[in-house]
Design goal:
Shape: globular
Largest sheet: 7 strands, mixed
Radius of gyration: 23 Å
Order of helices and strands: HEEEEHEEHEEEHHEEHEHHEHHEEEEE
Strand content: 25-35%
Helix content: 25-40%
Structural class: alpha+beta
Number of strands: 18
Length: 425
């Protein structure tokens, strides 16, 4: 870091952390729990971890979220820089982290090195997936197992007697997902293709929706839902994540028999309203929840950090960040957040074009998802082998209908950000 003010703050935070200066009156020691973190192998921003506790014949699921706000002051130089960035941005050739890497590695991440402060949600679910009881505490945890998704999938699948917690957690959260589905959640489970750079060459990696990924997703949704109910109950001003109902395409039309799941999922996504942040709690339509909040990634998203600040302040009886200040930040969350998303998409698109240039002689089996402009031959194609959707130009003398599966080959690249294909003869 070149900024001496930031360097000074980093030094002070690391000193505070090394002192183990925990507020023992407020912090609940949960280091006795067997705790797992599950993330991609190369990830350093480990925001979340999970544990399972058996109490009087019932299972209590613990979801632990990192607590950078225990060390960073709101309004500090590091906080202001994070607020300016709004989130980490993951580009193919580099990652723009929201926080200094030294702090991520040494203090914030829920690694398996040391005890870590977190904000933990303990929840017991009923048999139908509804909440029987819950509590939110400032905690001290220790991650015993740092797993990637492949390792976690193996533990869930095989469920060895000595390590059956993840398999039990998976079943508990599947029940919770069924509960949300009954409330109208729109579930899309599909693999997707993502460009990664390997040895300076773009490679298409397929990310599958495995049991461990579903487990983490559902745990984070549960945390976000219960935190949103907690902040409403205690009148804590925070940014709520809202999704209005669009209702342009009926569910009966979306789930038409005889149509591929790929096309059904595409139409389901088209039917969803836009998501945005608001000071007012409201329904998140596709999650099937009356309210929801982003709270599980405070190391990589400023919205979640803001919630982190507010929870820590409330739990310690300190003055909350004002509603007006939160509303001002929400404006940046919506604007800069969209810009960051566009940066990621544009970076992916650039390397997708590069990948097709390298693999120009290949033939591809695709599904036509939509005609964007039939007269200009602009369409959205789904590349079956790579689980990838792309806006393309498709040259054909034949009448091709939405939902048709066809074989195509590349005829030209990157003309006005469009890749050109034609039907194979």
């Amino acid at each position: 870091m070149c900024n001496p003010l930031i360097n000074n703050e980093i030094e002070n935070i690391i000193k505070k952390f090394k002192k183990n200066d925990f507020n023992k009156n407020k912090i609940v020691d949960l280091t006795y729990l067997k705790t797992y973190s599950i993330d991609d192998t190369n990830t350093i921003e480990i925001d979340d971890a999970i544990s399972l506790e058996s109490i009087n014949g019932k299972y209590k699921l613990w979801i632990h979220i990192a607590s950078p706000s225990s060390y960073i002051d709101y309004g500090s130089v590091i906080d202001k820089k994070a607020r300016k960035l709004i989130s980490s941005v993951y580009l193919c050739r580099n990652i723009c982290y929201m926080f200094p890497e030294l702090l991520i590695n040494e203090v914030f991440s829920l690694s398996n090195k040391d005890k870590r402060e977190s904000i933990s949600l303990g929840v017991i679910l009923n048999d139908d997936g509804s909440v029987l009881s819950s509590e939110i505490v400032q905690s001290l945890i220790r991650v015993n197992y740092r797993l990637d998704y492949t390792e976690a999938d193996e533990l869930i699948d095989y469920a060895p007697k000595e390590e059956e917690d993840l398999s039990l957690i998976s079943r508990i959260l599947q029940t919770r997902k069924c509960w949300r589905n009954d409330l109208g959640a729109k579930e899309i489970q599909e693999s997707y293709g993502k460009i990664i750079i390997k040895d300076n060459f773009p490679t298409l990696k397929v990310i599958d929706s495995t049991l461990s990924r579903q487990l983490i997703s559902e745990a984070m949704i549960l945390y976000g839902n219960l935190i949103s109910l907690y902040t409403q109950k205690h009148k804590i001003p925070v940014p709520y994540r809202v999704q209005d109902s669009k209702n342009k395409v009926g569910m009966v039309e979306i789930k038409k028999k005889g149509r591929s799941n790929i096309l059904n999922n595409f139409l389901l996504k088209k039917s969803m309203g836009k998501t945005y942040y608001s000071i007012n709690p409201s329904k998140h339509d596709s999650l099937g929840l009356s309210s929801y909040i982003h709270a599980t990634s405070p190391i990589r998203r400023y919205c979640d950090l803001l919630v982190n600040y507010q929870l820590n302040r409330y739990l310690n009886n300190n003055t909350l960040i004002s509603q007006k200040a939160v509303e001002n930040i929400i404006t940046d969350l919506n604007i800069i957040g969209r810009q960051n998303t566009m940066r990621y998409r544009e970076d992916q698109r650039f390397w997708q074009y590069k990948w097709f240039e390298i693999n120009q002689l290949n033939e591809y089996k695709v599904i036509l998802l939509n005609w964007v402009n039939r007269y200009k031959n602009t369409c959205i194609l789904y590349f079956i082998e790579y689980n990838l959707s792309l806006v393309c130009n498709l040259k054909s003398e034949l009448e091709i209908k939405v939902g048709d599966t066809i074989k195509i080959k590349n005829i030209s690249n990157n003309v006005n950000d469009i890749i050109f294909f034609q039907l194979c003869s």
